[in-house]
């Protein structure tokens, strides 16, 4: 029986590179591309099948920032499949990131330069916005839309015929200081991306506590710093060109500079091959690249409290219930 793998945000960036690498590892998969844009999803599907004609590749349209879209996609997936073996929760946004030039130049002449350039800590702020569902866009796209999707697919994930996997695309920029249980959507802060990634780290831990006995296991991975549409939006293209020699130099000291989506997918692909029972639920798995371009996986103990993780999980359960009631009333 073919393993079924669902990947959100699969039409570009690390999501598309992940799909390519998974099929290189096992073209006997059924790969389902969950994407917001139907045309881009079909183009990605055609390219994957051209390279791996033996594979089965399908698409489903879902915008994880739109909860009605999430519920429709989940109904479609339940109709098509009897089980899901892997779900890569990869779709995400960093809206209109602004670079703090003063902080950048200050860091270049400090002992923290490698850490700051690897994580962008203190360098970026973003302007968030409210979605049609009345939720913060970064929170719902990076965390809550995926959480609702997992809830809706529970019957496909907890099927009793072997373990299923949730693998979240997190970030080294996830910071405890940028997250608060009193403001899980980060509506009052200026670091919504970091807050959302810390929230999904917490959520992964809580999902393991609540679902491991039912055969569902969750892991988080960071693809590192890649040059994608997301990062190119931070600076004008000519500045990236000017900075490339420095980036290549720093990569000899900071393995987080994976630079390409294919390199960034390293930890995500590595997790595909691991037995979930052997993985530490409190560990984040990081894609890394040497100065000479060799990929490998390293680990990081997550800076979080399991009690906070459970409280977040319960808070999201309550929010999901309220949102469902609102949607049903509106429909």
Automatic annotation (TrEMBL):
<keyword id="KW-0560">Oxidoreductase</keyword>
<keyword id="KW-0444">Lipid biosynthesis</keyword>
<dbReference type="InterPro" id="IPR002347">
    <property type="entry name" value="SDR_fam"/>
</dbReference>
<dbReference type="GO" id="GO:0006695">
    <property type="term" value="P:cholesterol biosynthetic process"/>
</dbReference>
<dbReference type="GO" id="GO:0000253">
    <property type="term" value="F:3-beta-hydroxysteroid 3-dehydrogenase (NADP+) activity"/>
</dbReference>
<keyword id="KW-0325">Glycoprotein</keyword>
<comment type="pathway">
    <text>Steroid biosynthesis; estrogen biosynthesis.</text>
</comment>
<keyword id="KW-0752">Steroid biosynthesis</keyword>
<dbReference type="GO" id="GO:0005789">
    <property type="term" value="C:endoplasmic reticulum membrane"/>
</dbReference>
<comment type="pathway">
    <text>Steroid biosynthesis; zymosterol biosynthesis; zymosterol from lanosterol: step 5/6.</text>
</comment>
<keyword id="KW-0256">Endoplasmic reticulum</keyword>
<keyword id="KW-1133">Transmembrane helix</keyword>
<keyword id="KW-0812">Transmembrane</keyword>
<keyword id="KW-0521">NADP</keyword>
<dbReference type="InterPro" id="IPR052834">
    <property type="entry name" value="3KSR/17beta-HSD"/>
</dbReference>
<dbReference type="InterPro" id="IPR036291">
    <property type="entry name" value="NAD(P)-bd_dom_sf"/>
</dbReference>
<comment type="similarity">
    <text>Belongs to the short-chain dehydrogenases/reductases (SDR) family. ERG27 subfamily.</text>
</comment>
<dbReference type="GO" id="GO:0047024">
    <property type="term" value="F:5-alpha-androstane-3-beta,17-beta-diol dehydrogenase (NADP+) activity"/>
</dbReference>
<dbReference type="Pfam" id="PF00106">
    <property type="entry name" value="adh_short"/>
</dbReference>
<dbReference type="GO" id="GO:0006703">
    <property type="term" value="P:estrogen biosynthetic process"/>
</dbReference>
<keyword id="KW-0472">Membrane</keyword>
<dbReference type="GO" id="GO:0004303">
    <property type="term" value="F:estradiol 17-beta-dehydrogenase [NAD(P)+] activity"/>
</dbReference>
<comment type="subunit">
    <text>Binds to the short form of prolactin receptor.</text>
</comment>
<protein>
    <recommendedName>
        <fullName>3-keto-steroid reductase/17-beta-hydroxysteroid dehydrogenase 7</fullName>
        <ecNumber>1.1.1.210</ecNumber>
        <ecNumber>1.1.1.270</ecNumber>
        <ecNumber>1.1.1.62</ecNumber>
    </recommendedName>
</protein>
<keyword id="KW-0520">NAD</keyword>
<keyword id="KW-0443">Lipid metabolism</keyword>
């Amino acid at each position: 029986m073919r393993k079924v793998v669902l990947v959100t945000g699969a039409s570009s960036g690390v999501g598309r590179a992940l799909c390519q690498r998974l099929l290189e590892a096992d073209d006997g998969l059924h790969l389902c591309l969950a994407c917001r844009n139907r045309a881009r999803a079909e183009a990605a599907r055609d390219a994957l099948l051209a390279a791996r004609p033996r594979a089965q590749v399908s698409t489903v349209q879902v915008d994880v920032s739109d909860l009605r879209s999430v519920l429709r996609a989940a109904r479609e997936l339940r109709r098509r499949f009897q089980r899901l073996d892997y779900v890569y929760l990869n779709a995400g946004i960093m809206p209109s990131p602004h670079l703090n030039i003063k902080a950048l130049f200050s860091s270049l002449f400090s002992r923290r330069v490698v850490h700051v350039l690897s994580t962008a800590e203190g360098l970026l702020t973003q302007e968030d916005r409210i979605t049609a569902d009345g939720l913060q866009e970064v929170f719902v796209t990076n965390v809550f839309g995926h959480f609702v999707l997992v809830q809706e697919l529970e019957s496909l994930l907890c099927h009793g015929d072997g373990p299923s996997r949730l693998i979240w695309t997190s970030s080294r920029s996830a910071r405890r200081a940028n997250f608060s249980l009193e403001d899980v959507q980060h509506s009052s802060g200026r670091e919504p991306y970091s807050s959302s990634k810390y929230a999904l780290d917490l959520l992964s831990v809580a999902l393991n506590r609540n679902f491991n006995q039912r055969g569902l296991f969750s892991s988080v991975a960071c693809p590192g710093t890649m040059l994608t549409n997301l990062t190119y939006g931070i600076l004008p293209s000519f500045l990236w060109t000017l900075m490339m020699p420095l980036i290549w130099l720093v990569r000899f000291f900071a393995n987080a500079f994976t630079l390409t989506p294919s390199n960034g997918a390293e930890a995500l692909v590595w997790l595909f091959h691991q037995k979930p029972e052997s993985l530490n639920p409190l560990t984040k798995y990081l894609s890394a690249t040497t100065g000479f371009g060799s990929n490998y996986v390293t680990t990081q103990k997550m800076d979080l409290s399991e009690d906070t993780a459970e409280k977040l999980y319960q808070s999201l359960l309550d929010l999901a219930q309220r949102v469902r009631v609102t949607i049903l009333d509106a429909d």
